[in-house]
Amino acid sequence: MARLLLRRLALCVVLIVLVPSITFFFEAITPGNVASLLLGTNATRQEVQQLSARLGLDQPLYEQYWHWLARLFTGNLGTAYLNGEPVTAVIGQRLPVTLSVLGGSLILASILGVGLGVASATRGRVIARTVDVGSIIGIAAPSFWIAIGLVLLFAVTLRVLPATGYVTFNASPLQWLRSLILPWIALGLGLMTFIAKQTRDQMLAVLNRDFIRTLRANGVSQRSIIFRHALRNAGIPVVTMIGLSFVGALSGSVFVEQVFVLPGLGSELVLAATTHDLPVIEGISLVFTIMVVVVSLAADLMYAALDPRVRSVR
Amino acid sequence: MTAAATGPPPAEIRGASWRAFARSFRRHWLGMTAAAFLLLVLMACLAAPIIAPYPPDAEDLSSVLSGPSLHHLLGTDQLGEDVLSRLLYGGVISIEGIGEALGVAVVLGVPSGLLSAYRGRALDAVLGRVADLGLAIPAIVILLMVFALPVGGETAAMMALGFIYAPSIYRIVRGAALPLREAEYVTNARMVGVSTPRILWRHILPGVAGPLAVNLTLTAGVTLTVQTGLNYLGLGVSPPTPSWGGMIGDAQSVLDQQPWLLVPTGLTVALTILSFALLGDAIRDSLAEAWSLETRRARAGRAAGKVTEPQAVHAAGPGALLSLRGISVSDRTGRPLTTDVSFEVKAGEAVGVVGESGCGKTLTALAVVGLLPPGTRLAGGQCWFDGERRLSPGQGKRTPGIGYVAQDPAVSLDPCFTVGSAIAEVVRAHSHLRRSAARSHALELMASVRIAAPAEVARLYPHQLSGGLAQRVQIAMALASEPRLLVADEPTTALDVTIQAEVLDLLRALRAERKMALLLITHDWGVVAGTCDRAVVMYAGQVVEEGTVTQLIRDPLHPYTRALLRANPQRRVPGGKLLAIPGTVPVPGSWVPGCRFAPRCSLAADDCRAGDVTLTGLADGRATRCVHYAELIAEASR
C-alpha cells in the first residue's frame, strides 16, 4: 500500500512539473516571437527587442527554462503580460469561484448519480430506461448548450434565477447559492448520468457474483445485500471512474464559467488564450494539474479504503 | 467530456467475422438510423458549395433575425446571413477537425499499442507509463495553450486533441491485441518466419479493428463536442467563417430577441453527437452478438431431440425432511435443463448427488435452496421441506432452515468484509442478538468448524485465507442459521487433496453433532462413499439411479452408474480397468428421445430408443431408469 501510494505520488510530481513545462516548450519551439505577437503588426523592431529583453525571451532556451523552473518552485508564477498583475494574485482571486462550481456539481452529481444508479439496478425498468436516455443526452448535449438552455428557461423565460454573474459567499450566502444553481446543473447533469450508468452496470455485475448467492442462500436480507455488499463492491470501480471523469468536468467548467460569466479560472484561461498571455496560461494549467492530481489521489485513497485487497498490497 | 472514450471495451468483441457482424448490425435500427443520419450530414456538408442557397457570409441587413421562411428555410442571424447555408459550410470545419484529431490519434496510438502488446516487456512498460501520464493531463489546458501560441489555430488545436486521445487509443489497441499474441494462428505465423510488421498488419490488426472502430466512433462524438465548445468560446475560427460552435455563440447573444436561432444549430450538433454515440454502441453490441452467435453455432452441433414430460413421481414417505417431486428447470426459451428430478432426504440423513459436469446437479441444489440462477425458471414440480411446500426460485427468496455451501470458497465470500463480520451478519439475520453477542457467537461457530485461532482469523479478509480455511468459514456461515439441512455443492473440489479429507471429516462430525441432514453434490465416488448414506445418480438432467451407497457401489443397476464407477480412479471395481466413458454429456436440448444415455451405452438396444424410460422403483428402496437393469443384475450375480 505504501509503495503504491509512493508510486502515485511520484507520478503526481512528474505531472505537476510536466504540464506547465509543455506550455513553456510549446512557446519556445514555435516560430515567431511572442513579443511581436503581443505588440501587434505595427510595432517597430526596436520595440519588439525591448519587450523580448524585458520578458527574458532573448536568453538561450535552457537558461530561460532553468529560471522559469526555479521561479516555479519558489511559488513565483510571474506576472501577466496583459496587466502586469502577479499570476498568483490572479489565481487567488479566481480559484474560489472555480472550486465552488466544480465542487458543488461534483458532489451533487456523485450523490444523485449513485442513488439513481442503485435504484435503476434494483427497481426495474422505468428508472433504468430513464438513466439510459439521460446518459445518452448527457453525452450528446454539450454542457454549454445545456447551460444556454437553462439560461433561456430559468433566467429569460421564468426569471427565477440570475442568468449571469457571481456573488461571493461572504457577501451573501443566499445570492451565492442562487448564482451557482444553474452552473451546477449545467456541469453536473452529464456527470450525474454518467455516474448513474456506471453504478448501475457495476451493481448488476456484482449482483451476479457467487458470493451474493451465498449470502442470499444463507439468509442475509435483500437490503443488506444491496446496500452493504453490492454497493460496497460496485463502489470500488465507480470511485475510480468518478476520479477519471474529473478531467472532463474541468474542461466543462471552462465552458460553464464562460456561459454564466463567472469570474473563475476557466474564463480567465479563455481570456488568456485569446490575448496570448502565456504566464497566466502556465499558472492556471499548473493549478488545474494540481486539482487533477489531488482528485486522483483522493480516488486512490477511497479505493484503498473500500477494497481490503489493495490495502494489503505491499 | 472525454469519459465516454476511456472505458475499456468488453473482452468479447474480438474475432467476429464481417458477415455475422453485418447481419447483426442490420437489426439495430437505432444504430442504422444514426449511421444514415451521419452519412446525410457528411454528404450535405461536403456538397455545401452546390446545395447551399446562399454564400455563408452573404449579409442581408434588410432581413435580420427573421424566423424560418421560404427565402430562409432556417431563418437568418443578426447580420441577416442565411442559417441553413452557414450550417452547411460550418459542418465542413467540424468534419475536418474530427478527421485531424482521429488521424493523429490513430497514427500515434495504433502502432504503439500493437507493438506494446506484441513485444511486451520494457517497451510495454515505458509506453504504459507515458500513456498514464497522457491520460491525466487535462485536455482543455493543452488546447487553450495551443490557441495562445503564435502559430496556434484550429488545425493545430485539433491535432493536439489527437495527441490527447492517443493514450486511450493505445490502451484499447494494446488490450485487444494482448490475447491475440498467443493465438494459434499468430504463433504459427511467427514460427514460419513471417516478419513482425506483417504479423501486426495481417494477423493482429484485424482482431483489433472492432474495439478500435467502437472507440473511434465514440471519440468522434467527443471531438465534435470539444470542437464546438472551442468555437463557441470564439477560439479557432474567426467570425465571417461559419462554425457550429460560433453559431451557438451568436445565438446566445440574441437569446432574448430570437430564441429560435439556438434551435437549428444546437439540434444539429446534439443529433450528430448523439448519432456518434448510438452508432458506437450499436457497433459494439453487434460485434458482441456476432461473436456469441458464432460460438453458439460451433457448439450446438446436433439438432435438438424431442423432450416429453416423464411420469414416474415419488410419493412422499413419512419422515422426509426434504422431498423433491418432479422438479423441472428450464431456461428462458423454455429449453429444459433438468426434467422430473425427484428424491428425498430424511432428517439427519446424508444424501449424495453424483454425476458428470453438466448433468444438472448444481441446478438441483440451487432449486432446493430456492435460488435458481438468473435466466432459468422452475417449469414444474414441487419442493417440500419439513412438511411445507417451498420454492420460489428466481424470486431471490431462499428456503429457511437450509444452509448452503458453494463450490469455490475463493469467490463465495464478499471480498470487502472481514470473516468475523460476514459470519456475524448471518447470525444477526437469524436471531435478535446484538452486535457484540453476534460477534462472539460467530467466534463460537468458527471454533466449531475447527478453526484454531478464531479471534485472529475473524479479523482477516477472504483474500488472506487459504482455500481450506475459506471453506471452513463458508461452512461456519452456513451453520449460523442453525440449518436442519446443509446443501454443499462440490465443497471439496477446489481444495488440495489433504485439505479435502479434513473438510469431509468436518462435515461428517458436524452432521453427527447437530443432527443435521446433508445434501452433498459431487462427482467423486470417494466423497460419496466416505460421507453419505444414500446417493442419487444424475445424467442429462434426470435421476437415473437411486439407492444406498453400498448398493450403488457394489451392484449398480444403471450402466451410467457402472461406467462412472469404472471411471473413478479411487473406487474402481476391483480387477476392473479404469475406463473413460466414451462420448460427452449431451448439451441440454440435444437429448435423444428414449434413454438419454443410449448413445454412450454398451447395452443400448432398439427398445432403449423406443420411448421415454421411467424411473422404476425396486425392492429395498432402490430405483433405476434402465430398460435392461435385469441384465445388470444377472451379470452381477454371475
Sum up the structure in keywords.
heterodimer, A: mainly alpha, MetI-like fold, 0% strand, globular, B: 638 residues, alpha/beta, 2 domains, four-stranded antiparallel β-sheet, 12 strands
Characterization of the model:
The complex is a heterodimer of chains A (314) and B (638). Chain A has one domain: MetI-like (MetI-like fold, Orthogonal Bundle). Chain A contains 13 helices and no strands. Chain A has helices spanning 2-29, 34-39, 45-55, 61-73, 87-122, 125-140, 143-157, 173-207, 210-217, 222-259, 265-274, 278-306, 308-311. In chain A, α5 runs antiparallel to α10 and α10 (222-259) runs parallel beside α11. By secondary structure, chain B is of the alpha/beta class. Chain B contains 22 helices and 12 strands. In chain B, the strands form 2 sheets. An 8-stranded mixed β-sheet of chain B has the order 6-7-8-3-9-10-12-11, with helices on both faces. In chain B, a hairpin with a 2-residue loop joins β9 (534-539) and β10. Chain B is elongated. Mean pLDDT of chain B is 80; it is low at 1-16 and 299-317. Classes of the chains: A mainly alpha (314), B alpha/beta (638). The interface between A and B is large, with 85 and 83 residues.
